[in-house]
Amino acid sequence: MQLSKRENHLIEVLMKNNMMLTAHQLAKISGVSTKTIYRMVKKINEESTEGDIIISEIGKGFRLDYDKYLHLNTANKMATKEKESLIRRNNILLKLLFKAPHSVKVHDLFNSYFVSEAVIFKDIKKIETFLTNYHLKLYRKDGSLAVKGLERDIRKAVNYLIEGRELTDETFLTDFQNISAYDIDFLTSLLRDIENQLGTTISYPYNVNIFSHLYILMKRNREGSIENQEDITLDSEEEQLIKNYQTIFEVSKGVINRVSNYLCIELEEIETFYLFNYLISSRLENFNEYSAKGNEKSKEVTNFLMKEMSKVLRSVTMEAEYKEDLLSHITPLLYRLSNEIFIKNDLIQDIQLEYSEMFKLVEKATRKAERVFHLPQVSIDEIGFLVLYFVKYKEMRKIKKRVLIMCSSGVGTSELLKVKVKKAFPEIEIVDVISSKRFIKNIEEYQDIDLILTTVHLHKDFGVPSLLVNAIFTKQDEERTKNMLQGGGNYYE
C-alpha cells in the first residue's frame, strides 16, 4: 500500500496518541479540513489488504487498529525491498542506455550493490524485458552488457526512466548527482533564453522535461555513440507542424547550435526536431499560437471533453472562455501522447484524495475520448492535470451567479429588463429570457439557477429564489436584487 505524506502523518498521529480522536481534532493537528480527514480515512482503509486499519465509532471518533497495522507494516517492508530492487535496476538501465551501444562490465554495473549471482541474473532478465518495450536489445558477451537499437528508441527509454511514473526520486537524484555546476548553469541559461525568445514562461513540470531532454542529449553524446540519424526523414504531417510553429522551430534550432558549440560536437539536424517536439508538447504560458493554430483533432477532443463533463456537472456549460483555456492544454497534451513524452504529476495523490469524485468523472470522460478518437492511453498523471481544469471551472461557476429573467410573454418587457439588469450587475450570467409558461413547461432545462427575476407573480415554489421586480428595474429593484444575491454568500459581498 502506497500512502501519501498526509496519510502517513495521519497514521502516525493516531499511533502516537493511542486513543480516540475526533475528525475535528485530527483536522486541527494535521492542518486540513475535516472533510479531508474523512477522505483520507476512507482511502487508507480501501487500500489496506488487512481490512479497515482505522476504526471509526459514531460519537467518539477514530482509532488505529494496531494489530492490523503491524501486519500491514510487514507487507510494506517487503514492498520497500522491491522498491530498492527497482531503483537498482533503473540505475543500471540508465548507465547502459547512456553508454549504448558501448558495452559495460557486469561486475562494474552491480559491484556497488553487493547482490548475489542469482539476483544479478533476475535483474538482467527484467532489464531485457523492459528494453523490448522500446524495440531495444540487450547483448551479453565476455561478461559485459550492451544495449543496441535506434537512437530515438534509446531516448524514449531514458526519458521514461527519468520522467515516467514508475521511477522513484532516488533514481533521478542518483543519476543527476554527478552533473557539473557548469552543465547546470548552461542548461538553465538555455531554458531562460527559450522563455525570453518566445516571450513565455515554461512552468513545472514542462521545464523539468526540457531540462532532462537536453541533459540526455549531452550525456548520450559524451558517453555513448550516436549512430547516423541522417536517414530519418520527416513526414508531411511533421513538416506541416514546423510550418504551424515556425517561431518555436527557429528557437529550437538556435538552442541546438548552442549545445553543439558547448560540446564541441556537430549535432545532427534531427536534434532540432526532437527539441521542437518537447517545446510544442509543453504548456507555454501566454503563447497564443496554441489557440490560434490548434489542429482540428485537438479542438474536437476539447469539445468532446467539455460536452461529456457538462452532462455530469450541470454547473459547467460550454462557455467559450473555458473551451479556449482547455484547448491550450489539450493541444500540447496530444503532442505528448503522439511523441510518447511523459510528464510526472507530483500532486497526483493529493488530487485523487481532494477531488476523488471529480477525478472519477474526468477519467471516465478521458477513457471515452481515447476510444472515440483512437488516442494512446492517457496516464493518470495527465488526467490529474485535466481534473484541475474542471475543478477550476466548477469553482468559477460558483462565483458567477446564474439569473433567469421572466415575464408573462417573454418578449419586450423582459428584454428591457435584461438590459437594465446586465448594466447594474455586469458580472452575473443571464441564462435566458423566458415566459413563465415556457419555464413551467421546460423546468428541467433550467438547473442550477441562483435567482429568478420576474415581472409576474409566481404562485408556486419551484425551489429557486425569485424576486418580483418592475419591468423598468428601478433603483429599489436594484438594491433588492443585490441583497438577494448577497444572501447566497456570493460574489457581491
Structural descriptors:
493 residues; alpha/beta; Arc Repressor Mutant, subunit A; PTS-regulatory domain, PRD; 5 domains; 4-stranded parallel β-sheet; 3-stranded antiparallel β-sheet; 22 helices; 11 strands; 61% helix; disordered C terminus; activator; repeat; transferase; transcription regulation
Amino- and carboxy-terminal Cα gap: 45 Å
CATH class of the largest domain: Mainly Alpha
Beta fraction of the residues?
A: 5-15%
Which value, in Å, is the CA radius of gyration?
A: 29 Å
Count the domains: 5
Structure description:
The chain is of the alpha/beta class and 493 residues long. The protein folds into five domains: 5-64, Orthogonal Bundle (Arc Repressor Mutant, subunit A), CATH 1.10.10.10; 79-176, Arc Repressor Mutant, subunit A (Orthogonal Bundle); 181-287, PRD domain (PTS-regulatory domain, PRD); 290-398, PTS-regulatory domain, PRD, CATH 1.10.1790.10; 400-487, Rossmann fold (3-Layer(aba) Sandwich), CATH 3.40.50. It is 61% helix and 9% strand. Helix 4 (66-99) packs antiparallel against helix 7. The chain is globular, with a radius of gyration of 29 Å. Mean pLDDT is 84; it is low at 165-175 and 488-493.
Short description:
The chain has 493 residues and is of the alpha/beta class. A hairpin with a 3-residue loop joins strand 1 and strand 2 (61-64). The protein contains 22 helices and eleven strands.
List the helices and strands and how they pair.
Layout: H1 5-17, H2 23-30, H3 34-47, E1 54-57, E2 61-64, H4 66-99, E3 104-105, H5 106-110, H6 117-132, E4 137-141, E5 144-148, H7 151-163, H8 169-176, H9 181-198, E6 201-202, H10 206-223, H11 236-244, H12 246-263, H13 270-280, E7 284-285, H14 289-293, H15 296-312, H16 320-338, H17 348-354, H18 356-373, H19 380-399, E8 402-407, H20 413-424, E9 429-435, H21 436-441, E10 451-454, E11 466-468, H22 475-487
Parallel strand pairs: 8-9, 8-10, 10-11
Antiparallel strand pairs: 1-2, 3-5, 4-5, 6-7
Helix pairs in contact: 2-3, 4-6, 4-7, 4-8, 7-10, 9-10, 9-12, 10-13, 12-13, 15-16, 15-18, 16-19, 18-19
